[in-house]
Design a protein that fits this description.
The protein is α/β, with parallel strands linked by helices and 459 residues long. The chain is built from 12 helices and 14 strands. Helix 10 links the parallel strand 10 and strand 11. It is globular, with a radius of gyration of 22 Å. The N and C termini lie far apart (59 Å).
Length: 459
């Protein structure tokens, strides 16, 4: 018996007569860990299936509505956070730092682009990562590759690298703690637009970008106070903001355990996150991930890139969004600065001609990864910016709308990506390189990117 198959109803949602919560079990499921004990995994799945949901269907539907507005060009999606969250970084300062940089970036984009921004964090669930290899070898020793804290440990030793189902419970718990803290911060006025200066991070005060940001923050504060003086009352919606979560829906049993039917709504909702996405390694039409995703009611996203054909993309869209519903499907393109001019236009043309109502988002990170002679995985800021600049141009020429950006970043003072205002070099990488998977923009680089995007959108 497959885990959870006896613990969830297989009732068929309306319009999905051939789908059930466990129908993906009959498909090829890539990038799934192999656990040494099926009984231990089954026990954990039972526990996960009884735990409270992390998000609500009402929040999910609110996000869907906002994503539909972004697809029309009325909003802009800012999606960002860690490449892969670590359990050890479920820490108040780390979480607040990520929230601060996303708030600051969104403030810059609102001011520059004159559009409302949808804030979606790559956090509270981004604990699993797809990998290119099954094993890792060091000095003649071969062990399973590190797949993220949800599955195994980063230490190169047999006990750590053996997939452990108990980690699924730890991942759920840390996602809940992260969400709880973020909601408490926002409800407590952390995102108050009257005081955006409180979002500053101490270590970056010496940066020229900090001075520009400070001027921007002061101008917004002055504008709010002027409006309130005229109206005689406090401007609504300025003391708190909407914040949503996202993660790659990679570990299918974990996703299934938190997928439920809710009162007064049709269909099945993945209540572990607001916006799950499918990565390029698991987006096969006949695969288990597409089978699972086509049946959930959440808005969903799919990564597309150099291996995506126009015909394949239209077939995938038809499977995942048969009703062509506004806000349902987000396409996140990731080509790399050298390949986007060749690869993106055919996809834009095909989707536009088919009348598909999708939200296009640019991920300028993953296609620009490279390795240095020292063995560091890194990305050059100039390539990240170059892909974004080209994306705006290509969408404009195609008559489509680039409605968002998807970036890997942190609020910490790391040195993982080269370039930016401080012009980090290859020699700087070893100073504060902390990622165990992919390199992230640090606070200063992320804020600079937001300012450059805002300048582009304004002009």
């Amino acid at each position: 018996m497959s885990p959870l198959s006896a613990h969830n109803s297989d009732a068929e949602p309306a319009g999905l007569d051939d789908w059930s919560l466990t129908s993906w079990h009959s498909r090829l499921a890539l990038q799934q860990p192999e656990y040494p004990s099926a009984a231990a995994l089954e026990a954990v799945m039972r526990q996960l299936g009884r735990l409270p949901p992390l998000v609500t269907s009402g929040e999910i539907e609110a996000l869907r509505s906002q994503l539909a507005e972004a697809a029309r060009g009325d909003r802009f999606l800012l999606q960002g956070g860690d490449c892969a969250e670590q359990f050890a970084e479920c820490d108040a300062e780390v979480i607040a730092g990520k929230l601060k940089i996303l708030l600051q970036m969104s403030l810059v984009l609102v001011h520059g682009a004159k559009k409302r921004v949808i804030r979606v964090g790559r956090f509270a669930g981004q604990y699993a990562k797809p990998r290119s290899e099954q094993v890792e070898a060091r000095n003649g020793v071969e062990l399973p590759v590190y797949r993220g804290d949800l599955i195994n440990g980063v230490a190169f030793e047999p006990a750590a690298r053996t997939p452990d189902p108990e980690r699924l419970l730890r991942g759920y718990e840390r996602a809940a703690l992260t969400l709880n803290f973020i909601r408490a911060l926002i409800d407590g006025g952390f995102a108050d637009l009257h005081h955006p200066e409180y979002w500053d991070l101490e270590w970056v005060h010496h940066s020229p970008l900090a001075a520009e940001y400070q001027r921007l923050a002061e101008s917004i504060g002055d504008s709010l106070r002027f409006m309130e003086t005229l109206s005689g009352e406090r401007v609504g919606q300025t003391t708190r903001v909407d914040f949503f979560t996202s993660h790659e829906g990679l570990h299918l049993l974990y996703e299934q355990a938190q997928t439920r039917q809710v009162p007064q709504r049709e269909g099945w909702y993945n209540l572990s996150t607001h916006l799950p996405w499918i990565g390029m390694r698991t987006s096969q039409i006949g695969g288990a991930h597409v089978e699972y995703f086509r049946g959930i009611a959440n808005p969903i996203a799919v990564k597309v890139g150099p291996g995506t054909t126009p015909e394949g993309l239209l077939e995938l869209a038809a499977v995942l969004d048969p009703g062509n519903e506004p806000g349902r499907l987000t396409l996140i393109h990731r080509f790399g600065a050298r390949a986007i001019a060749r690869g993106l236009p055919p996809l834009l043309q095909a989707v536009e001609q088919a009348g598909r109502r999708v939200l296009w988002v640019c991920d300028p990170m993953h296609g620009n990864t490279e390795r240095t002679a020292e063995g560091f995985k890194t990305r050059k800021f100039e390539h990240i910016l170059g892909e974004l600049e080209q994306a705006f141009d290509l969408h404009q020429r195609a008559g489509t709308c680039l409605g968002g950006v998807h970036v890997e970043l942190t609020g910490e003072n790391v040195t993982e990506c080269m370039g930016g205002a401080r012009n980090l070099s290859e020699g700087d990488l070893g100073r504060a390189y902390r990622s165990f998977v992919d390199p992230r923009l640090n606070y200063e680089q992320a804020l600079e990117l937001a300012m450059l995007i805002a300048h582009r959108m304004r002009h």
